[in-house]
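Listing S7. Sequence submitted for prediction.
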Amino acid sequence: MNVVSILGSPRPKGNSAFVAKGLCEAFETKGAEVQTFVLNSLTYRGCQACMACKTKLDRCVLKDDLEPVLDAAREADLLILATPVYFGEVTGQMKSFIDRTFSFLTPEFKTNPKNLSRLSPGKTLIFIQVQTADQDEAFNDIFLRYKAFFKWHRLKGIHLIRACGVSSPGDAAAREDVLKQIEETVKAVT
């Protein structure tokens, strides 16, 4: 299995990175090859709405540090997206990555529901969302919104690991419920 983990936090040792690392280590013990990308360490731009990926190319036209990340995501069997919640949303780093996955959609994605994505069918996504707010209802719309877009890519499984009430680095590691979500997700995916 080819696993690609994309970290959207500017804190490389933050809670979302901890959860992603726990998943990656578990998949490695099962023989998976894992690549991790830290978006905050890259220089890239968001989608330019140039439509070149729909008219001239089968990929994003931009040549920047996100190009190999998009290539790796395209080839992955399992994609892990990890983000904290900033101002009620995924981080800007993660949002720019997600916007650039627009290039994965076919030119006829609006008119042909049977041919939405250029990705091979059968990939799995694990979405990690960590947040300081400890109320489950706070920001529960984030995953639901993005899940609708992720479905366009013909993913066979979309899983959520969510940690509420974590703020300082190390908070997630001390939470049994978070560790259990990691364990249960690994079982569900393998």
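Caption to Listing S7: primary sequence and predicted structure tokens for the chain studied. The chain has a mean pLDDT of 96. The beta strands are 2-7, 33-38, 78-84, 124-131, 157-164.
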